[in-house]
Description:
Layout: H1 3-6, E1 29-32, E2 36-41, E3 44-49, H2 60-73, E4 80-85, H3 104-122, E5 127-132, E6 135-137, H4 139-145, E7 149-152, E8 157-159, H5 171-178, H6 180-188, E9 193-194, H7 195-201, E10 206-207, H8 213-224, H9 229-239, H10 244-255, H11 260-278
Parallel strand pairs: 3-4, 4-5, 5-7, 6-8, 7-10
Antiparallel strand pairs: 1-2, 2-3, 8-9
Helix pairs in contact: 2-3, 3-10, 5-6
Amino acid sequence: xxxxxxxxxxxxxxxxxxxxxxxxxxxxxxxxxxxxxxxxxxxxxxxxxxxxxxxxxxxxxxxxxxxxxxxxxxxxxxxxxxxxxxxxxxxxxxxxxxxxxxxxxxxxxxxxxxxxxxxxxxxxxxxxxxxxxxxxxxxxxxxxxxxxxxxxxxxxxxxxxxxxxxxxxxxxxxxxxxxxxxxxxxxxxxxxxxxxxxxxxxxxxxxxxxxxxxxxxxxxxxxxxxxxxxxxxxxxxxxxxxxxxxxxxxxxxxxxxxxxxxxxxxxxxxxxxxxxxxx
Length: 279
């Protein structure tokens, strides 16, 4: 067991933990947009999805802001990037609001931009940490999947329904995390799974309550400083299959099939019907 995991044994989960840096010594670049909070401090970039009233769903503008923040981190000496969500959950996935105003073409472009973001994070020349709580659905689950360290609060739920409307997004990366047989079973049935199941199958690297997260951040930050950008890029090249071109082709093929918007609308209608019957 690594040292940062063993430090969990020292935590009193009944009480709050101090932040890694106290307010008095806090000296960071702190940017708040409508949809993304960016905090950069001494080589650590913290990105917080900031659409709590929309379940932190991934709008086109939020995805663009994330891509920009990841690109900046790749060039400014960042050695650890942390992803969180504000409010009651990490992310509800692809933003389906105003679907009536979308076209097949605009939806294709949005999915391509999300895949670009996911690829940039998966192959980033710095350590990445996803801290998820509540739920991470669809592309929100994919955001967790691409990070090197993937920690979830115990009650977190995950579900990736993209194939239900014919979208091949993150499928290969998910299979690399959990194995092809498990991936086929979960994605083929659009099966939900909880944090403990995610840890058991390898989708997550840890399960810890939110009071423990600052200690985890400190430990992962310590480990992240051991490799410079070039060394981490070399490690990635040697250990992560570079299937970016193939993954983008697979995504484009799936979303450019005629009737993308119709398929998504049918999925949403069926989901709403099932939910109303269960209430």
